[in-house]
């Protein structure tokens, strides 16, 4: 009924006390005044992210189910009205899911929950853009080989096409579409295939197949999009055009959606040709809400009087940020950021600093948030902390409000980070993973010291401080001011403007005050003078590229660009081998990534030289060409780069800015996605490659590649035997 329900996570041992049983109880309740819960779409609340295993184990965050705000969580382009006849009313599209024996043997009873999550996340997009609600009419899970159809058995060399052909030829209960989910495959390469423009086809072509892996919902949304008539969105380049039908992360302008420019006409034509003509499987939703009577005309509303400027937030003002949970953003002494407490104490106090100087803060202004620790709130990847005192790009936030003009105390705001994502409070966690501008991203800005209306007595002017002499100041060779004191990675702090903590071959260097002056945030020092600016901290990249959506059954040829030349030296260098040993030590000790604990793993990873060549080449390519991405500038993916060296890979991590093996391992260990890649016990083979360029923005670039299935390793790049221990070369 639009009300908010809070569900507190409970220990798994409390049998029957999880979310699913609570919803089942609510649905079956016949007590007076009980609210009927017809369906709950978890992804609507979590920014299209699913709660994995929410019926088992521990859920690491509260779930705030605010149905009335769901429509605000999607920023895509709706195609209705005007796409197909009657599209002002929601239409229900009935679909059948089939899970093969391989998926059952791997996932067991969890399959149904996984498929329901796939459906709900996909339906969210289709509902918003097409006003089409996907409904699971039937589900078949093959649990035994006895009498199993051909599409449910085995994983032959061409299993995607063979399973689709077998599914197409099989006799299935008729639905508007039928999709098979298989446990075969690794989640990379071709992860789905489907027929194009075949909704409601009675000869079995209204079908598709999807690997049931980590990002299955996006694969399914893409393959069902083929059934809906959508072709690939490659018009502006593969991975560059955007939208669900491109090979990428499925987003366009920050929202999961079909590309309106290239896909709307063909998809709307397909839908229009079958809606209400699909044997009752694609019709108007029979649960449309009752129309709301038109309200009586409201009396005229006087024009509001603007709040006095004294109520507006000013540069340098101390504030608190209250989240939707009622808790306030808090900075711990160790500079971690959370929202566990509702205090208005010193740990919650933030000072607003306008990038463009003094005055009132207005919507659209860029600000820094200075904390009581002296650090500024920083977005690094998706993580939020206050470990650095810089005033750099990673510390900048754009203030967004419901209306333009000055931002006032007590007003709701959103804070957009340099990544385009917004600060979000999820339970007690503060992060910046989603583009949403909804309830979980909203903050009420509370002023600590509201000013009185009268003009305050001016403070006495302090005696001027003498300017530093030139000998106290340093500049780069380009004449840009150096920071007086700065810290690079895990190295000791440089307190004399210019240092060389990482033994850079170019000599002493410094972080600069204005990155635009230098063209980057550091430079080599001259013998001149001047104080210093703000470094851009070491970036933490996304954990892994999204699985590449699959082609349609008709094969499409792809030209493979020529790979770069093999790395010079053809031998792993000392810091790469050190990093390999450190990772094996970490896995042997065990540890946790986010809320997941990994037991000590006595089996070390095996270093493979083919993976190393792919990693090394990519790291050096990023350094030489000045970019930072899992995708090479010629369009190659991590998996293509590995295959060029004669091997396959299952995960890639990249990082930049750290020059030492331990520092970059720590950087990855503190990022959930990267940490999971490294600690996953299914990984058996590994390599890390390091690249360097003095002229690149971050200078130091690292790439890890990890592989699940062990094969005979290539050891041709190993350092001299004397440098190895018995444990390092063993293949237990």
From TrEMBL:
Gene Ontology biological process: proteolysis
Catalytic-site annotation from UniProt: 223
Annotated region (Disordered), positions in chain: 283-310, 450-477, 528-572
Superkingdom to which the source organism belongs: Eukaryota
Presence of the UniProt keyword Zinc in the record: yes
Molecular function terms from GO: metal ion binding; metalloendopeptidase activity
Biased composition (Pro residues): 290-307, 453-469, 532-554
Lineage: Eukaryota, Sar, Alveolata, Ciliophora, Intramacronucleata
Peptidase M12B domain ranges (all copies): 107-233
Keywords, ordered alphabetically: Metal-binding, Zinc
Coiled-coil annotated residue ranges, if any: none
PANTHER family (UniProt xref): SCP DOMAIN-CONTAINING PROTEIN (PTHR31157:SF1)
UniProt organism field: Strombidinopsis acuminata
UniProt-annotated binding residues for Zn(2+): 222, 226, 232
Name used for this protein in its record: Peptidase M12B domain-containing protein
